[in-house]
Amino acid sequence: MVRSGYLPSLDGLRAASILLVLVGHAEISSRSPGGFGVTVFFFLSGYLITTLLLREQHRYGTISMRQFYLRRVLRLMPPLVLTLAAAMLLSAVGLARGQLDLGTLTSQLLFYFNYYAQVAAPQLVEGLGILWSLSVEEHFYLIWPAIFVALMRNTIRIRHLVLLLAIILAWRCYRVIGWGDPEWKIYFSTDTRFDSLLYGCILAIVQQRYPDFDRRFRSGPAMYAILALSLGVLLFTLAYRDEMFRSTLRYSLQGIALMPIFHFAVNCPDALVFRPLNWAIIRRIGVWSYTMYLSHYVIMYALAANDVAAFGSLSILLWSLLLSCLWSALVFELAEKPLMPWRRRLSVHPGSMPQGAAAD
User: Fold this and answer.
1) Residue ranges of the Acyltransferase domain (predicted)?
2) What would the pLDDT profile of 70-100 be if each residue is shown by its tens digit?
3) Could you tell me where the DSSP H helices lie in the chain?
4) What is the pTM (predicted TM-score) of this model?
5) Under 8 Å between Cβ of 36 and 304
């Protein structure tokens, strides 16, 4: 599926993911699936980035590594730098607890915090520990464009990606059984979470190469039956609390179950179950979701530190939702929106002509 234009429901799925994360971090329930919200973000990131790379490949016959990484910098760094600065300011005036040391700040800005935090004792403004997930994503994108190019040249095939998924699962099992790594180390490490993005990448490639593979399943009953099965698998992965399972097979099953959900959400946005994802307010939260993710936990800890709201209460969820939306809207207007023309320019190959176009 390579076509220009807005991908229906993806901003809605972003919004659903950030809301899951907020509910989990608010600690309203011990079973709140905040970690699953991060997994959905990973899957969505792999799916969206690969879809954009497929469009670039289709239009120009190649992808520009340089422009890919420049787009990543323009997308990630302004909200990250502003949110880190705001967190340090809150700490400096006594509204937030903790402080950032140079080593921790460097690891967060250069995206190796997930491993730095495992070997050092990072000093943090409370709430900034969630930046580990940015490290996982950026490590993945150091490798994925090269794999993508190999796929486009048929040097490797989809079956090799499926084999890689199996290898990563086996590696997780080895780290748990052979090394005795605890669940949190598996959760934070790039080498054990690589496949959470890869499942999304594979879905995008399958959609592009086999656009009609699901034609018989797009009728209401068939689609809803597949969605019900996927939801059942996801609920099982959240309810089953065995630590070995949670550190190993859980991520694989979640990746598989997310595939049909994303597929139908994008291709059948008018289906009753997906319509809420396209409500204007939900899409707007999706647009803000990255900055909301960066800021919401700092806001929660600041609210708790100043006795405005307590963890485990509905009020901390509502206040953090409101304040993170306000902060994200401000960052979007001041930093992200002005850079959009630059990012669009970086999607066009200088001096190149789209495939199939005639010279003027």
Assistant:
1) 8-331
2) 999 999 999 999 999 999 999 999 999 999 9
3) 10-26, 34-60, 65-92, 102-109, 113-119, 132-152, 158-177, 183-188, 190-209, 220-239, 243-247, 249-267, 280-305, 314-331, 337-345
4) 0.93
5) no
